[in-house]
Amino acid sequence: MATVLIENLTKIYPPTITYPHRVQALGGVNMSVTGNVFVAVLGPSGSGKTTLLNIVAGVETPTSGSVRAVQDGVPAQVGYVFQEPRLLPWRTVLNNMLYVQDRKSDRSRREAEFYLTMVGLNEVAHLYPSQLSAGMQQRVGIARAFLVNPDILLMDEPFSHMDALTGRSLREYLQRVWLHTRKTALFVTHDVSEAVELADRIVMLRPGGVVFDDIPVNLPRPRHPDDPAVRAVEGEVLRRFDSMEAAVRFGAQAG
Amino acid sequence: MTDVAQRPPAAPGPNDPYGQVPRTAPAQPRPNDPTTFASGFQELPTLPVGDLRPARDAGYSAPRRALRRPWVVQLIAFLILLAVWQYLTVASDRVPSIDNILSFMWTEVTGGSHGGMLVGEFWGPLGLSLQRYAIGLAIGIPAGAVLGLALGTSSWVRGLLNDTTLVLLALPAVVWAFLASLWFGLTSTAPIVAVVLTAIPFVAINFSSGVRSIDPTLMEMSKAYQVSRRNQTVDLLLGGTLPNAFTGVRLAFTTGWNSLLIVEWFGATAGVGWRARFWYDALRYAGFVGWILLFVLLITLLDRLVLRRLERHAFQWNQKPTLSFAEDWGM
Ligand SMILES: Nc1ncnc2c1ncn2[C@@H]1O[C@H](COP(=O)(O)OP(=O)(O)OP(=O)(O)O)[C@@H](O)[C@H]1O
Ligand SMILES: [Mg+2]
Questions:
Q1: What is the count of structural domains for chain A?
Q2: Interface pTM (ipTM) of the complex?
Q3: Whether residue A250 sits in one domain with residue A190
Q4: pTM (2 d.p.)
Q5: Which among A39, A120, A199, A96 is positioned nearest to B236, based on CA atoms?
Q6: Of A137, B123, B225, B304, which residue is 20 to 30 A from B116 by alpha carbon distance?
Q7: Collapsing DSSP states into helix, strand and coil, what is residue A13?
């Protein structure tokens, strides 16, 4: 069973030439995720969501605090869908998939083709990324994340670069695939309805990278964004954001 | 395509948002027929593809289209060059005529007599030069590649050697040629060393800038996925370096050939450069010009027929749109 344990995690970026101030991206985040759950991290732009995922993925180092991502006591394999597709422009779609595999055997090729078919892109396996639309490139990124058979799936606003129509159908798609695999998932988004549609639990971040709320979403799956029950949870989430903002503003005025 | 481009624009019809008259006559309305909607849909005016995206050469007349073909342009340039040459031949006795050059080179190839004790020599000097060139590049290109990869991947190596490499890059080939002759005298070593030394900085600088052009977010991606060292080296590092690396290799081919000629001119007893100088000193300008032309021809053919084709093949992924200003402005 996969576990992500985040304790008192702080990330402060040092001043740069263009912005000579320290930036607090994360301010003491505590959270733990265990087992086959889908957790959404919801927060406005600049609230440290990408930074959080980068630290979990081991790409960025924390300023203080600790992060552990383990599977049965050993470091977990992560599959990371980035905010942008991040494909090698000079490799075909298929070779981009094979890039994350250790050996380019027939077996890994078949697996890559399986996941490309899953996102509806097996036909274009031999094209280069520049020959695909942005949404198609992002789908390759999703297929790549599943290909490594991850213990933990990290997703950073994977649908934010797509038009609403494609995003909607891919969301539904992701839901189906997730129900099938039930990987431990950390899904970052600024879209409330996306979070409610997909997640078992929503962790809410405010600017400065502080968790101010954490609510469970106990709705049956598959969910549809237009269900009244889904809408009701959305309303609740938005209310909590509003009261947080009011509190912050009030606090600022009082101070 | 031409009929589309030349068809006069149709007058906009009242119910026709595209300003195109339906090509088929409107069907009789069939009330209460469940198929009406579908069949009516089919009869909507369609935009011919040619109106949406004019084909490349639509709008150019046949002669202008011919003038846009690359080989026609190159042929014209060549003919102009020949004409200018013939004019110079007539105007000055220091410029050998084209037929003089051709017959002189023919004597060289066949080993015939140039008069007196002088006999033609061709494959000997040419083969020797090509051999020196091949050895020089076979050493210089890999050495430059290793140096360039080290410069690109390690900031320590960069601090140590970057400025040196830039200085070496700025030295003209003729300096290498003189230095090599000075160090190694009238041997085959001097031209080989000159080729090696000219090639290395060109290859190294281009490899290094290729490595540094790789998007760091791709390295982040590789780190997150724990991509194997082997895949990172082959697919990310070398794959991303290749376009610049290729430029460096092409430059090494051309500048290496130049410095070879210079060393052979000043400090060798055989080779293409030596043969050109031999005829220059003997005041046989047809021989001198003939060998120089051969030299230019070889490097041009190599570049056109081999290197550029390889480059185009290797960089399909990077095909940029090829619209030029002149084309866009209808010139
Ligand atoms: N490499 C960096 N150097 C300096 N500051 C950074 C860096 N990366 C992020 N930051 C800062 O950290 C804060 C959080 O950034 P982050 O990218 O994690 O936000 P986010 O929640 O992912 O936003 P978005 O929804 O727009 O993607 C921002 O204020 C940003 O300016
Ligand atoms: Mg982000």
A1: 2
A2: 0.90
A3: yes
A4: 0.78
A5: A96
A6: B123
A7: strand
